[in-house]
Amino acid sequence: MANAMMEEFEALLQESFEIDTPEEGSVVKGKVIAIEAGQAIIDVGYKMEGRVDLKEFANPGEAPEIAVGDEVEVFLRSAENARGEAVISREMARREEAWDRLEKAYADDARVEGAIFGRVKGGFTVDLGGAVAFLPGSQVDVRPVRDAGPLMGLKQPFQILKMDRRRGNIVVSRRAILEESRAEQRAEVIGNLSEGQAVEGVVKNITEYGAFVDLGGVDGLLHVTDMAWRRVNHPSEILSIGETVKVQVIKINKETHRISLGMKQLQADPWDSVAAKYPLETVHTGRVTNITDYGAFVELEPGVEGLVHVSEMSWTKKNVHPGKIVSTSQEVEVMVLEIDEAKRRVSLGLKQCMRNPWEVFAETHPEGTVVEGEVKNITEFGLFIGLEGDIDGMVHLSDLTWEGRGEDVIGDYTKGDVVKAVVSEVDVEKERISLSVKAVGGDPFAEAIGGVKRGSIITVEVTAIEDGGIEVDYEGMKSFIRRSDLSRDRADQRPERFQVGDKIDVRVTNVDSKSRRLGLSIKAREIAEEKEAVEQFGSSDSGASLGDILGAALKGNE
């Protein structure tokens, strides 16, 4: 009996020797035999027990789930410590298990489940069921996330971007998962859309150039030019974020999955009736919507704008910026000048709604009218005078004075001087008004000579004696009689035989209105008198002497 028991004991002892004891640094199975002082006492077999803090059995942010009798896997760090207990770790066991699982998922490019549990510099920490991974801030969402609070502790899928077991580094992405699902959803939505289709969407974002509309998982761009037929300066004028709008699919790019949308395409095109509503040369009231360097845009109705070119804005203001003639939102009257339906352009005129000031001036100021105005500008060829109707008239140098040269007297004028002038010509087509300052008060030369013409005999007064002749005065007009014209006889062609103050009869040989000079000659008078006497009283062939003829002529006159 005793021998039998000894043999049985030896057999059991031998069996126990044959079973390998667990190797340190490996994962072993154990059983929870007790829970005390915040720790679980685990029997890992081989007459070894160890202790593990309860927190190692809990996921980040959760309560531990462990009870007596549960079987768990732990990592055997050491078979025996100073107290004779095995040194074990549930956390290290989970990590080893997790790394095996994650390496397989990384190799298969599969998603893994985890929960964000902490914030670190540049991103967040994620628990992947025992292994801790880094989630960069840029990989949290497709758009920057301001508040990650709602995502903390939430179990969700991640994509492993990089992992290094030796260094214990894992980098994951949540954004990759979202983009993938979004791409699938986008492809499905786009597959159900067709160009020309009318759909409803929600305005998600507004920019300077348009608005992004969510069509149910896919965004489309509603450009500002496709929002309305009229001019829209900024999308916020007609749209607000969160608003539901009806749009038409204009274009779908199958490669880039970009969708172009339009709102105005669902409304009637006002250009269909432009030609009928706005015949040429008709006048309409419009509103100035935009001002540029080359003109102003005027809205005739929503969706129909015309351009008033700077050259059609004013009769008189030629080199002025349009902003100085009209202002934005101003109501103006315009005339339709041209319509180009193909290019959707209307040319308008502002000045055509006002009378041509040169026509008005020509009607109210016929030639010869005396006007008064301010000197606006002085040039090398004359003066510019401001007149009624905001127009200018020009006084040429030759029209400044009767005596002397215009160049000599133009220096007497300064800007701002008020002067009188006579209208000498109005050219409406060339928009030119010619004025004459010297004509104010009449022409003293014409008045002085009166009915004097070539061949007339007039009486003049000697005012100066010179070597070459004599200077004489007739009604205030100065003339010069050359030595050769002082007498028929050469012996009497001496200036000195005259004295200042002498009154003598002379014959007018020339009337020069341009130079304002009379051509006078004593010699011509004598010759004319001789000719006349000969015709009346005889000829030189009859033997009568000149003295006889002149004597008879004089006697006859008496």
The CATH topology of the largest domain is what?
OB fold (Dihydrolipoamide Acetyltransferase, E2P)
Point out poorly predicted stretches: none
| Radius of gyration computed on alpha carbons | 58 Å
Strand count, sense and closure of the main sheet?
Answer: 5 strands, antiparallel
Q: Can you tell me the CATH architecture of the largest domain? A: Beta Barrel
Give the domain tally.
Answer: 6
State the oligomer.
single chain
Helix percentage range: 10-25%
Shape descriptor reads: rod-shaped
Distance between termini? 210 Å
CATH class of the largest domain: Mainly Beta
Strand percent estimate: 35-45%
The average pLDDT score comes to 78
* Helix-strand makeup class: alpha+beta
In the sheet with the most strands, the strands line up as 3-2-1-4-5
In DSSP terms (H or I, runs of 4 or more residues), the helix count works out at 9
Number of strands: 30
General description of the model:
Strands 3-2-1-4-5 form a 5-stranded antiparallel beta sheet. Strands 8-7-6-9-10 form a 5-stranded antiparallel beta sheet. 18% of the residues lie in helices and 39% in strands. The protein is rod-shaped and about 210 Å long. The model has no long low-confidence stretch (mean pLDDT 78). The protein has 558 residues and is of the alpha+beta class. The chain has 6 domains: 24-108, Nucleic acid-binding proteins (OB fold (Dihydrolipoamide Acetyltransferase, E2P), Beta Barrel); 109-179, OB fold (Dihydrolipoamide Acetyltransferase, E2P) (Beta Barrel); 193-266, Nucleic acid-binding proteins (OB fold (Dihydrolipoamide Acetyltransferase, E2P)), CATH 2.40.50.140; 270-353, OB fold (Dihydrolipoamide Acetyltransferase, E2P) (Beta Barrel); 357-436, Nucleic acid-binding proteins (OB fold (Dihydrolipoamide Acetyltransferase, E2P)), CATH 2.40.50; 444-538, Nucleic acid-binding proteins (OB fold (Dihydrolipoamide Acetyltransferase, E2P)), CATH 2.40.50.
